[in-house]
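Example with several molecule types.
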Amino acid sequence: MAQLVIAGSLALDTVKTPFGQATEALGGAATYSSFAASFFAKPSIVGVVGIDFPRQSLQLLQQRGIDTEGVEISSNGKTFRWEGYYEYDMNEAKTVKTELGVFADFKPKLPESYKDAEYVFLANIDPQLQLQVLEQVKKPRLTLLDTMNYWIQNKKQQLLNVIKKVDILLLNDSEARQLFGTPSLVKAAGAALKLGPKYVIIKKGEHGALLFSDGSHFSAPSYPLEAIKDPTGCGDSFAGALIGYMASKNSDSEKDLRKGIIYGSVIASFNAEDFSLERMKRLSAEEIEKRYKEFERIREF
Amino acid sequence: MAQLVIAGSLALDTVKTPFGQATEALGGAATYSSFAASFFAKPSIVGVVGIDFPRQSLQLLQQRGIDTEGVEISSNGKTFRWEGYYEYDMNEAKTVKTELGVFADFKPKLPESYKDAEYVFLANIDPQLQLQVLEQVKKPRLTLLDTMNYWIQNKKQQLLNVIKKVDILLLNDSEARQLFGTPSLVKAAGAALKLGPKYVIIKKGEHGALLFSDGSHFSAPSYPLEAIKDPTGCGDSFAGALIGYMASKNSDSEKDLRKGIIYGSVIASFNAEDFSLERMKRLSAEEIEKRYKEFERIREF
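Resulting structure tokens for the full complex:
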């Protein structure tokens, strides 16, 4: 199993959906994605929290085999907080409030043991921080980049700079349209590939995901979830499981990437079934394999 | 090959898209769907046109082996006309004008030879007309029903009455949400199945299509079309190819239905590449099989 480093936010989320709510619950892109990756690999995370971050949340990650040496505990502010809600169409999160806290002045410093990582996931944070993390990894084999509409609007040039340096760009459909200024996902993917990445993955929520590379295309089916409680962290869980699977296979092939996208879809579909990390906390390897097999059946013709 | 009857509109369409326009071009649900079905079977169509309907358009259908005995040529008004346009997001047609013409007083009368049909496609027309057609077919084996938002809004009860009598209900995603009052396609499909149909197919445009039956689910991949010129008639072509394939196989099995959905997606993807029926007119069996194989590759993991 190859070494995997994940950089991103650790957060306290306050979320309301038509099916309930959670207050200051464990969240953040690095949290969701490293937990998802831990079903396949032993990720190491980079991020920052305030001293108000619950000790047991870090322990929860450590118990999953996640290396948290790269998580700085700063006395210089509060943990990153996000407050948002979903309406009946749960495809889109509405943000009420974002408090960057300790992330405002964060200067990521990778522990020495992280710098030989072969697999790197730059989860959704400021693209300048993503670049700083990437530059500290000596010789990554496969790098995956996620982002969000906020950075497309406010730090587009910095984002484009990082995109040029990674192997796989991950976007949701509206972000792809926004970043490349076209309603066509095929054209957006083509434009993204021209920037440098070898692969582009477009997440379409309930409609599945698409993988584009030069001359090839993969369409991952959607999973018919009847009981979505909270979609927060689904994109992060998808990405974490995907990169965790690639690290576990020590692979960068498209064949494995397609399987990784299905494992990502599997973990994300479970994640939506409960608030915060609750569903992943009680998720078993047997459940994962069973749903993977369901994904095989639902695309068969 | 089993007998197939298709009822629906024959129309003259005036369409504008970001990539061009067509004026009074051949269109209509029965036209598109029977032409698509003719790649697999020999459909017979039921509908009405005015004396202004171009003679060569009927000949075009006849040359494809389509039986047009059931097309009434009425001197009591003009051919059905639709005028609409698409903006850059080509998922949704905007209607400028609909002129029912001869369809306003249409009383479908099936030729005797149609009444033994085993396969019936009730393409998008007034649900009362759909019911009148269905009641004239003695012992259909597999019946497919399409509709549109207009009938959901204006003739919901009549529509529900027909839905109860068919085997397969076909809807696009927004129609499914509208008819069953839920944002969840899974819940909408469940509600539809409770009304009577054995299968529900939800078309999602560029996101592919879903098939639901009691206890089973199929997710058809989308095809990455870079050059969409005009999506008019794609839903009709999808349905026509699907039911044509089922008739050619003399089957009502889910296994064949899944293949039929892929053939439907293949024909619809070609249809979008040009205005009116232009692309289908120059479509070959080899091209269809080649794209079918591409659909196999894009869902492989």
